[in-house]
């Protein structure tokens, strides 16, 4: 079975290059159209309903988010493309939507397509684009949501509900204010990069904590942060000074 694909890219050379890569190395897909502007992309998606859309983030006529806001539905999988570390990458990472940096790497393209095809073949409604649009519209002081993919589906979790993260090998467990813990098959380093600028701190090689959820700090036995769920999280000696500095500036 082949899935229909649309390539949205305003530079013809880049559009043709990606088209050739998909044709030659992604046998699961059939490129049924290309678009060079926001208007062309919206019209094609509304009329032809492609299953996968490769979408340049920044175009001369607008952005990929203009396209997403104007189409009639979001029943397709998006793989964003961008030539630089775009300001929207943070929102994209939170929403677990794939993106490719230009020049496009063949291996990364094949991996992104394989993930898209797997997602299209799974059961249940995929709300990642809705989460992405909500995150993109938020100001810096508003609460983001993060998408957590597990073996039984995708969970959409507000950052303010996360107390701490714990690593176990290649897995990370999220401990929340309400609800059961959520385990995902990604390592802690990935979430350190995503959450670092949002009030979270890697306090130990195995733990990331929400600084707003620290109830107190115990200095004995090397030091522990006591969290709002009464968990005692060890403080790495290398992280102690930075932790103390961050806590001294905490306002809530």
Automatic annotation (TrEMBL):
Domain Response regulatory: 4-117
Lineage: Bacteria, Pseudomonadati, Bacteroidota, Chitinophagia, Chitinophagales
InterPro entries tied to this protein: CheY-like_superfamily, LytR-like, LytTR_DNA-bd_dom, Sig_transdc_resp-reg_receiver
Keyword field: DNA-binding, Phosphoprotein
PANTHER family (alphabetical): STAGE 0 SPORULATION PROTEIN A HOMOLOG, TRANSCRIPTIONAL REGULATOR-RELATED
Positions in coiled-coil regions: none
SMART domains: LytTR, REC
GO terms, molecular function: DNA binding; phosphorelay response regulator activity
Signal peptide: none
Domain of life (superkingdom): Bacteria
Modified residues (4-aspartylphosphate): 56
PROSITE patterns: HTH_LYTTR, RESPONSE_REGULATORY
Domain HTH LytTR-type stretches: 146-249
Protein name: DNA-binding response regulator
The UniProt record lists the keyword Kinase: no
């Amino acid at each position: 079975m082949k899935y229909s694909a649309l390539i949205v890219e305003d530079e013809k050379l880049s559009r043709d290059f990606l088209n050739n890569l998909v044709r030659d190395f992604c046998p699961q897909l059939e490129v049924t159209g290309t678009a060079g502007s926001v208007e062309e992309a919206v019209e094609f998606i509304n009329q032809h309903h492609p299953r996968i859309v490769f979408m340049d983030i920044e175009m001369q006529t607008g952005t990929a988010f203009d396209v997403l806001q104007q189409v009639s539905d979001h029943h397709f999988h998006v793989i964003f493309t961008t030539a630089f570390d775009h300001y929207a990458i943070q929102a994209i990472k939170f929403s677990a939507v794939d993106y490719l940096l230009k020049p496009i790497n063949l291996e990364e393209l094949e991996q992104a397509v394989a993930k898209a095809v797997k997602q299209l073949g799974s059961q249940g409604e995929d709300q990642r684009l809705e989460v992405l649009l909500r995150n993109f519209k938020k100001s810096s002081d508003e609460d983001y949501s993060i998408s957590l993919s597990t073996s039984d589906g995708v969970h959409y979790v507000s950052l303010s509900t996360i107390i701490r993260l714990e690593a176990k090998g290649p897995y990370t467990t999220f401990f929340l204010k309400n609800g059961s813990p959520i385990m995902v098959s990604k390592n802690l380093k990935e979430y350190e990069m995503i959450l670092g600028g949002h009030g979270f701190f890697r306090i130990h090689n195995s733990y990331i904590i929400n600084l707003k959820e620290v109830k107190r700090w115990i200095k004995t036995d090397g030091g522990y942060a006591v969290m709002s769920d009464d968990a005692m999280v060890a403080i790495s000696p290398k992280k102690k000074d930075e932790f103390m500095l961050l806590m001294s500036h905490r306002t809530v």
